[in-house]
Design a protein that fits this description.
5-stranded mixed sheet, GHMP_kinase_C_sf, 404 residues, 22% strand, 37% helix, Ribosomal Protein S5, domain 2, lipid biosynthesis, 6-stranded mixed sheet, steroid biosynthesis, lipid metabolism, alpha+beta
Length: 404
């Protein structure tokens, strides 16, 4: 149909995917809430997109009457200040890039309205850094749409602080930066995802959680009221960052695991030191922490390490040869309610027979149904361009495709 062809020429579209990341040296607290500048540097592990990813399609057309945004199929407010900040920054970079060239196509594109559709392949309510993946993906798709190839972690940071770390794969440091304008508050890769092939990640999704205090609000209360947070940012974190980078470079799991656990514990201690106190961990989280310590004590060294973000889900780091046994320990400690076959998702996990003395020492009082499921994954790459047009989330009319 000739008319359809003309419409398609007037429509530019790009689709990207982006990953979730888990901080092992935590970011908590902003020194500038508008620019999202942190009070301390942080370091994270990017998780593999085969298990956890956001997919975003951005389209621009002269036929669009207004900017529109859909999240997981539902239309949401495109006027959200952080979404607008990302749009504005990417367009600014595109204009700057085009200023020197005569590329009228992109200049036309920049005057068009955009439609954006975004989907997660994991439950958004699971408390798994969905905003980091979401904003990293938004910025990647917009940058691809407008032909921007600049350093984009600064733009992603304007959407969600931790999103700047999702702009890279593997092991990523977000530098606090010193400048008040935030131009040096950037993420960079410490080591690629291929650097530590044996490293595995188990996300234990616990049931019945809803965040008691949103991260943004909790963070600012902590900055205003917690002396421990100030001490952590100024004294503890700089030394820990250097240590953590060394452990990663040397693939030293003992050092990496010990430090990840200590840092997670200290982050939650600053939440308790906030006034009024914030509790992101629940009884189940504490149960998992105790289990990890009993398991390591039984083996006489650090075989598993936990890290908790602002929520009750546990992220467990382990080497590949520990996964089968530890998953069986979790299965015995938190027997699955009904979904025994769906209890472990993601990368395959083998069967393990537990020695009786391990069960006696580690599996104390089972809590049935407490862990909804375990997601098994590993470090993975940064944002990816999706070349296959059939994977676009928007159709030729610029509206979300019906998902079969």
């Amino acid at each position: 149909v000739p008319g359809a062809m003309a419409a398609e020429r007037a429509l530019a579209m790009a689709t990207c995917t982006a990953p979730v990341n888990i901080a092992v040296i935590k970011y908590w607290g902003k020194r500038d809430t508008d620019l999202i500048l942190p009070i301390n540097s942080s370091l994270s592990v990017t998780l593999h997109q085969d298990q956890l990813k956001t997919t975003t399609t951005a389209a621009a057309s002269r036929d669009f009457a207004e900017d529109r945004l859909w999240l997981n199929g539902e239309e949401v407010d495109v006027g959200h200040p952080r979404v607008q900040a990302c749009l504005r920054e990417v367009r600014r970079l595109a204009r700057k890039r085009r200023g020197s060239s005569e590329d009228t196509a992109t200049l036309g594109l920049l005057s068009y309205k955009v439609h954006i559709a975004s989907e997660n392949n994991f439950p958004t309510a699971a408390g798994l850094a969905s905003s980091a993946a979401g904003y990293a993906c938004l910025v990647s798709a917009l940058a691809r749409l407008y032909g921007v190839e600049d350093e984009l972690s600064e733009v992603a940071r304007r959407g969600s602080g931790s999103a700047c770390r999702s702009m890279w794969g593997g092991f990523v440091q977000w530098q606090r930066g010193e400048r008040p304008d935030g131009t040096d508050s950037l993420a960079h890769q410490v080591a690629p995802e291929t650097h530590w092939p044996e490293l595995r990640v188990l996300v234990l999704v616990v049931s019945g959680q809803k965040k008691p205090v949103a991260s943004t609000v909790g963070m600012q209360t902590s900055v205003e009221t917690s002396p421990l947070l100030k001490h952590r940012a100024e004294v503890v974190v700089p030394e820990r960052l250097a240590q953590m980078i060394r452990h990663i470079r040397e693939r030293d799991f003992e050092g990496f695991g010990q430090l990840a656990m200590r840092d997670s514990n200290q982050f939650h201690a600053t939440c308790l030191d906030t006034f009024p106190p914030i509790f992101y961990l629940n009884d189940l989280s504490r149960h998992i922490i105790a289990l990890a310590h009993r398991y390591n004590a039984h083996h006489g060294h650090t075989k598993v390490a936990y890290s908790f973000d602002a929520g009750p889900n546990a992220v467990i780091f382990a080497l590949a040869d520990t996964v089968d046994e530890f998953v069986e320990v979790v299965r015995r400690s938190f027997p699955p309610a009904a979904n025994g076959d769906q209890f472990v998702r993601g990368l395959p996990v083998g069967l393990a027979t537990l020695p009786q003395e391990l069960v006696a020492a580690v599996v104390t009082e089972p809590v049935p149904g407490a862990v909804q499921y375990i997601l098994h994954t590993k470090p993975g790459p940064g944002p990816q361009l999706v070349d296959d047009p059939s994977q676009h989330l928007l159709g030729a009319d610029g509206l979300p495709r019906r998902r079969t």
